[in-house]
Amino acid sequence: MTHSTWTVHQGDALTTLRTLPANSVDAVITDPPYNSGAATITARVNDTARGKYVRGDAQHDLPDFPGENRDQRGYLAWMTLVLTECLRTARPGTPLLLFSDYRQVPINSDALQAAGWSWRGIVPWHKPNARPQKGGFRRSCEYVLWATNGPIDAARNPVYLNGLVSGSQPRGRDRLHITQKPLEVMRELVRICAPEGTVLDPFTGSGSTGAAALAEGRSFVGVELSDQYIKIARQRLTHAA
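Structure tokens predicted for Methyltransferase (241 residues):
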């Protein structure tokens, strides 16, 4: 389905990325399946996304999503291939923003550098409503790894952005995905894309990156595998456009 400002392809991220033209996007901003959220390797590769990331007393019935059962070696190889294809689609100077939890920061930094991106740093995402942890610290942060395709091209987009973003996951009717990111956070992040440029998200989910890109005057190209979530994303982007 294609519109003047957005396109969302249905399919596997790696397979679909290979069909996209080279040097065609101005930012890659994505929240891939973390393949984390469990204390042991057995639980990590056998549990579902709902089992890992949704509390037992949750009041929603959001659908599960695929791609959450790779072990660490498989995840590193897969993410390297995905990010290599993202680099091919990216114009020189294009930024990459990659969401990660604390467990996967090291392996994601390895993957993006192995794929040829220049690693620039980490932007913490502060979650004000994070659940407490008895006997320890509240897990109030996830992380956004920042990289670029070669040198930073500040001439195309001379912005000064905060090195910390803050916002809680949507609740109630606004919650459309198990791991949905706040729209206000995504709108701040997409400003890293050059004005009127194109944002690519190979793991579109419910379309938060796309909705933020459209709200900030950018175009959007997405890829989503799930039948349920691609319908939600397309409806959301149609409304946003």
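The mean pLDDT is 88.
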